[in-house]
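ok here's the first one, seq then struct tokens
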Amino acid sequence: MEASLELGPLLRTWRGRLQPADVGSPFGFTSTRTPGLRREEVAWLAGVSPDYVKRLEQGRAHPTASVVYALARALRLSDAETATALRLAGHASDLRALMPRRITPSVRRLLDRLADTPVAVFDPAWTRLDQNPLWGALTGDSRGRGEREDNLVWRIFHGDPGRVRHPRPNEYRASIVADLHRVHTRYPNDSDLASLVSTLRQSSDEFAQLWSTSALGEHGNERKTIDHPELGPIELDCDIVTVQGAELRLIIFTAEPGTTAAEQLRLLDVVGTERVSTP
């Protein structure tokens, strides 16, 4: 039965069963709109262009595994539906060989409920998949699209650390390479992950050296400083929570109550999210 399926018509079907309120669409279309999500909304949620969504639905484009995962997150696909989409796109006959990149419903609820705490969700290789509005207001990051520009390792070794200052940068870089090394060992047949590692080794001498010497260390919790352009330096506790089974990482910034940092976060929650909530 699955052999007769095509990805394009399935994408249209999945798009049609969702409403803007289901996914937090910022576009604000009126009630006279056609049922389901528009291509523009799917494109915004998945981090691709509306024209690319159109070409996918018409069978005129071949998505990478990372794009399929981005579409699965945007369309709230189940595990079985995500597996079907990956197979139809020609990725991995054994889906267990692929690194998990799907945000589970429970993690999605956490993002929705921790509105007053900056939180972002990362896959095992440290690619940011999604975030809540306060994370964007704090870090300046746009909504996670699952691309290399959203990967912490890529940004670190290409001179784009963003607003976050690490207290021990050398140890941080070594530990995150060691962590990526362990993930690559677990998923040696994931082509997107292999491509990320290969490109990093070619483009960064420091990464290549750390990779070849099997850098040691655990990438874990520590206090960090975020240099906000309007509120100045904000010192926050940074905790990393791993979701077992789904292998997702949550990075959570918090401040001790009654501190200057807590007041800065409160101000950011009041005024900062208004500027980053629009696409």
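and now the second one, same deal
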Amino acid sequence: MDEDGLTARLKAYEGRSAAVGGTGKDPVNAPMIRHWCEALGDTNPAYTGPDAIAPPTMLQAWTMGGLTGHTTGRSQAYDELLALLDESGCTSVVATDCEQEYLATLRPGDEITFDSVIESVSARKTTKLGTGHFVTTRTDVRVGRTLVGTHRFRILKYAPERRKKAPPRPRPVVNRDNAGFWEGVQQRRLLIQRCTACAALRFPWLPGCARCGGPDWDTLEASGEGTVYSYVVMHHPPFPAFDPPYAVVLVELAEGVRMISNVVGTPYDKVRIGMPVRLEFRSYDDDLVLPVFRAAAEEAVV
């Protein structure tokens, strides 16, 4: 399909419903208002007390379906529009901006309903992320029959720019406090700082001892044995030179200090707290060496 034909098909969805008969999962309520104000540091007294109102900027919050979504979902037309964009190669999506109009005050106890319409679909645009189409939806929020606000939300559905060559791995920040650690890594040695006054070990490297305040130190070479103390799995945002999903682990070394790294050779969904791991050094290019860990059981198989 040529670009003009695709744009015409996309434009045909303008004015069609994106969601019909949506209802707020919860009525407007004081706990959510409190959490919102605490997160934003908003101490306006209008949002507390027996006559409290909801911050106007919470308008979209009352329409959100959470992780499980709404029992009344988005329309078939909106799903068709997104599928058409996917078919055209615009498989990635990013939220770009929103506009809100406030027409009435919301108070705890108000139960909201909403309807959404596909307001506009742009012609193909070129951005730094790639080429694609901006899709704008308008959501009308009501309490009973009263229109209390309008929320316009815009996304970009785009075809990600294809990279010919994988970008280089980000470089660590080396300064006067940690230069000795990175020199050790280049020599395939994992060095831990040790206070010469109280013998406390510390990692990451610091200019002074957190236990006694002593400024002097020497180093101890780690044995390389450790266990996974905690971990997270990174899905988003994708970052150049990394291939999500992948696990970022906090490893407790046998010496008692902890460090953040990656587990190699083990799928991200097989990483577990308490899993024994063993240090190894991996070269990512001509001048970058990083300490990583391999599951001890996997190492034994290899």
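notes on #2: The chain has a mean pLDDT of 91. The radius of gyration is 27 Å.
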